[in-house]
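Annex B, item 7. Sequence and structure tokens for protein A, then protein B.
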Amino acid sequence: MGYNPVELTKKIAESSCTMEQIQIWWLGQSGFLLRTPKKTVAIDLYLSTTIEDSTSNQPWKRHIRMMPIPVIPEKLEGVDLYLCSHGHRDHYDVATIQALQNQNTEMDLILPKPCMEMAKNDGFTNGIPAIAHEIIGYDGVQIKPIPAKHNAFDCTETGDYPYLGYILDFDGIRVYHAGDCILHDGLVELLQEEKIDLAILPINGSTPELIAKGFQSNFDYKEAPFICKEGNIPFMIPCHFDMFTINTEQVGKFVNYANHQMQDVGYWVPIIGEPCIFAKNGFQI
């Protein structure tokens, strides 16, 4: 495993970086902590076994965890904002959010507007609706939601997107977290306009078997670096792998492809328990 949850939780709490840096911790799947001296932002954390428990009697879609829970969420201090990209349970995990809110009572919960009713029903009264292209501003970070296509956009009758990516501007360092998304018309051009420094992108793609079972799709290990190259994004972090045996990808495929076909894109393969420091000019691991 290489880490102890108690020790890693403490290590995160005691870590720091400078004003021109972002400290990045991967906590599995698409879950990240992005930390600066001003703000700590959690995105799409899955720190429980709720999906494993709920599918235990459904062998056709049985989810089996490939990694232990890396930290103790009810002990994770200093989280200012929680961003949820959409309502699928490996991105919106009620147990994780409740545990974090019990420890971080002032933590704001930001999630797509169509997910607000679901959040209220789950007991979250501090939800802030995220609407595509409408900036949510805080001291130290500006958050711009953008549409994500997860097989379809599935917009509501009022035109709101239930799947979002987030562009976070940390005092001039711009990070794009895609949530769950497939390549769609206009995405590359939008990212070009936004002048992204770092993209955090899923690489697990899809298969006909998973689609037949009702799973939705993501960028694959070739599309993710392609999006960065075409979108003029110099650096990326792959994610959405090594969480569930039923829906994963070999990150080595991404490494081999990026090294041989996308040399202009710098990357960091995340490791549980090991942070990286990102600055405007790249990774400082």
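Protein B:
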Amino acid sequence: MENELDILKKLYRSTFQENELIEIYFQYRNSYRVTVSLLQQPRFPDKYALNIIPKVFPIDLLKISKNKRTNPNIRKRAELEFVAKYNRYPLGEKISYMKIAPNSLIYYFIEESDERILLTILENPNLTEEIILKFINRSSPRFTFYEALSRSEWYKRPQIADAISNDPTAPIKIILMIIPYLNLRQLERLFQDPDTHQVVKNNILEYLKERS
């Protein structure tokens, strides 16, 4: 039997056939590092992965879910395992994980309400406008999300600014912040909306006056 380091190097560098992976699994199933590496082999069988994933540490669940080389079924199972255990993690760990979470995992946290975690998500380099729009369009209260969003640069994106302007529950604070990032048609619509606060209307007029 090869030593653990040699087999890890081979798993990292090469792609094995299913029968080879099964053989390695039975030889090294007591090695945490080898089994985690096996999970990321594209031909590793699902039936063995299901026995391993519940024992995997959260940081490795994230690595598995981000690894494009991994079998999609195993990636999804790793995500679900992470989500199932998420509430048990202390706040500091949650923040660390949300810094590096892939987009597919962030989708599970659209209803997150802790501003510190929301700020971390907004700083995640994997984040896209599509996910932010889902945060804006969620059915639960969005005040805390808007507080976090106002401390980022995302609200300056035209598509996001437009989505905020269409949200009747958006706080006046962020509506005022997006005025420079709306086009004339959007500003006119917002100004003519009977539900728009007078403070916002006054700021739109002031902004247009300065522009002209």
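Comment on protein B: The first helix runs from residue 4 to 13.
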